[in-house]
Structure prediction request, 471 residues.
Amino acid sequence: VYSRHSPSLLLPMGRKLTVCGVLAVLVALALYRIYSAGVFVPLPCALIGYKCPSTQVSGFVAPGYEPMRDLFAHHFDTHLEVGAAAVAYVNGKKVLDVHGGVANMDTGVPFDQDTLTIVWSSGKAVGSVAIAKLVDDGHLLLDDPISKHWPEFAQNDKEKFTVSDLLAHRAGVSWVDAHVDLSTINSTHSLKDLDDILAAQPANWPYGEKTSSYHCVMGGYYLDALVRRADPKHRPLIKFIQEEITVPLGVDFYGSLESNMHNRMANLYTWPLYHMVPRILSFQYLFGQNVALYEKVWGEPLAFEQHVLDAVADESSAAYKACFRPFSNLTFTSSLLWTVEGISFASKTTARTLARVAALMAHNGKLDGKRFLKPETIAQFQEILPSVPDQVTGGTYKMSKGGFGYFPVGDTEFVGWHGNGGSMIWWHPTKDIAIGYTMNAMHNRMHDIRSGALVNKLYQLASTNPEKSSA
Prediction:
């Protein structure tokens, strides 16, 4: 009979403890390598250094602006990027045009200057520039009631909302109650079919309530319906932008993309669940939603917006109805979005396009010797509105009458907008500086750390090297 302290029993137990200890160390080492390597590092690379991406940054940089190229490359070195492009102008001249990484992680197709990406809400700024063109040509006024050009819009207490209200997310049309399948909105015909639903929708918020309600998805369809009525040629919004702005600028901008163009599209990549779930759970339960503690432990800014988590959990919220319900038949990374028409969220374009549109705004409406907009039109569109709380995002933003946001950069502010995941179209309203940025690695923050760092560096360099540029 063995006692409970018999060495012959303790030996197997000791071996088990040793095996468990080794396994625990290996698991801890694996987790450390995964979470310290970077969100978009492939697992084989993070774990054993196999098939690690190597990025060559290519393109043009003007003398004096090399630190921008180096910063852009640093974002690849620290695995913040998969594929990306950045273009900048100072005084109407190009100072940066760089790109790097891959458009598709499976095939290794390079992300180059012609790679198209979905830029999400950055397309809204291009839409506002299109409205500025209609105003500049005398076909619209910012203070016009929308119903002046689209009488059916006046239904259900929407008769007083103006063109400016629509651009600045104050027109009470963040969502529609009727089911709309975004995947079917890919032609002029289906856009026209949508008009009746849009016009009949009651205002989400009563006129005069002094509130903002971010037009995540549906605002662009209202804008399209308005443009088809105000434009003497009755062109859809995307076609108007192409013919009046981007084609004359020598760049690309698309809505619904034909299949023969799909080879130019970059695949979009969101955070893998094994990176996102631990961050969410630790923030919610381990750190008690303490942002400072989260950022100290993880060594990074908060990886998500709390209001986004709240919206996903509450289908009755304004944020869910405006930003998530329309995607019931789609995912944010679905290639089905390549064929969807929708300027608020599904425009396909390049960093060069965003930068050149931003440059014409920064350069008082003129670029490469061609006048697109009068300076007084731009000034009107950049006129600042009183700040009001937004019912969808939960924030309070400094907005202009033309729907552009004002964003702090160093000791100044830039104008423009940005898109889900990180894309950017910003310019300085008086210093003639502009930047466009596109990428396919989608981070989950409202203010992207990559584009934010690039625009800060651009402002610093432009302040000391304004004359060093190239056409």
